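User: Hey, my collaborator sent me this sequence without any context and asked if I could get a structure. I don't really work with proteins. Can you help?
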Amino acid sequence: MENIANGWGLLRLSWRYLWSRPLPAALNLLLLSLGLAAVVLVMLVGTQVDEGFDRDVRGIDLVVGAKGSPLQLILAGVFHIDVPPGNIALEDFEALQRHPLVAKAIPLSLGDSFAGYRMVGTTADYPAHYRAQIAAGRLWRLPMEAVLGATVAQAMERAAQGPQGGGMAVGGAGGLLGRSFVGTHGLAPGGEAHGGHPYGVVGVLQACGCVLDRLVLTSTESVWQVHEAAQADDPEDLEVLRQEREVTLALVRYRSPLAAVTLPRYINTSTPMQAAAPAVEVTRLLRLLGVGADVLRAFGAVLLGVAALSVFIALWNAVRERRADLAMLRMLGAPPARVGGLLLCEALWLAVLASLLGLGLGHLLAGVVGQLLAAQNAMPVTGAVWLPGEWAVPGLAVALAVLAALPPAVQAYRVDVAELLGRP
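Assistant: No problem. I've predicted the 3D structure and written it out in structure-token form, which is a compact way to encode the shape of the chain:
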């Protein structure tokens, strides 16, 4: 019989008792691990999505574009994960720029993509808004010059090193400078290539963790030049298109807090444009996403509840099956607290193992979610991050295990040796 007079002996004996019934032990461990993994997954993905939204929308008071869905306008103009509802006339944008309540209006022209990454025609104010830093080269100065976000640059490097790119080493971000590429019409793969208007890479941005990482930036004039040439059949058509130039939307910063009261109403009622407040629409979006997170969180809570119930039943039955062993321990001098502690230690072993497995599985699933989002060029999510809140996960597992093991431990504590030995 294992000596349980010291703590180490108690732990070793409880470990042996735990795995003396491997199937129930494995089932309890699986249930507890899955519940904890669901909690960790919601924590990791939810926190990174919230931080991503906050980071991308910071400093943008209003998004102005064509009339349609306000949420669609925000998703297309700020996060670049939806198609814009349309374009607005250049003269309307210039009038907005001159409005006394507007401190700054940044134009964005969308419509083309490269290898699934969106191309944005804009001004230098756009990367400056996110305080983007140049990793190599410079910003664009002329039409048909392009600057790559960090993620786009990495994708271009991998493509260059692949079989179709000749398998040549690029040599980092600087090795992409001077390369040319062709954009395709539309924001989804498979669009018509603008073969006659190649872009030249003149710069690569440092990774900022924001939406710029997933974009190709160029001048607004580049977008006009490409699309006017594609649509015009003769010089007269070309001149008409130049007279009717458009931008897709504008990111606006208020000159004063008073603008939040009057400017959106003015735009929505007195202009052919639509104004959408990112703070309002992101809150609505997070509320919608929160429903899915609540469902997953509830699923994890159900798993944890089932696991606690299963641990309780397993340990309760173990006490009944081990009455002879427990009586022997008491006869050998083990105090009642040690005998009860034996049951608690079994539950703690489960809690420790489930914490390790749950945390590992939660991070693994978060990495899979990140890969799925990356395949769609959506918001970055990774499993290779540790959140301070995760330190509470082992505590949650221990609390559940102790709660489930407490009644069986009390029953073991109250084992009457004389009664057991007197039974036939």
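In plain terms: Residues 111 and 158 are 25 Å apart (CA to CA). You can pass these tokens on to your collaborator as they are.
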